[in-house]
Amino acid sequence: MTTSVRSWFTGRIVSMLAIGLLVGWLADRIFLGLFLATLFYLLWSHQQLHRLLIWLDKAAHKELDPPESTGVWGEIFDGIYRIQRKHNRSKQRLASVIERIQDSTAALNDGIVMADQNGSLEWWNRAAGELLGLQMPDDQGQLLTNLVRNPKFARYMDNSHGKEPIKIDSPVHESRQLQIAITVYGQGNRLLLVRDVSRLHQLEIMRTDFVANVSHELRTPLTVISGYLETMSDGMAMNPDTPPIFNRALDQMQEQATRMQRLIEDLLLLSRLEATEPERISQSVTLKSLLAGIVNDAKALSGENQHQLQLECDDDALLTGDAVELRSAFSNLVYNAIRYTPSGGKVQVKWWQDQEGGHLMVQDNGVGIDPVHIPRLTERFYRVDKSRSHATGGTGLGLAIVKHVLLRHEGRISISSHPGKGSRFICHFPLSRIKQANVVNV
Ligand code: ADP
Question: How does DSSP assign 69-131, residue by residue?
Answer without folding.
Answer: --HHHHHHHHHHHHHHHHHHHHHHHHHHHHHHHHHHHHH-SSEEEEE-TT-BEEEE-HHHHHH
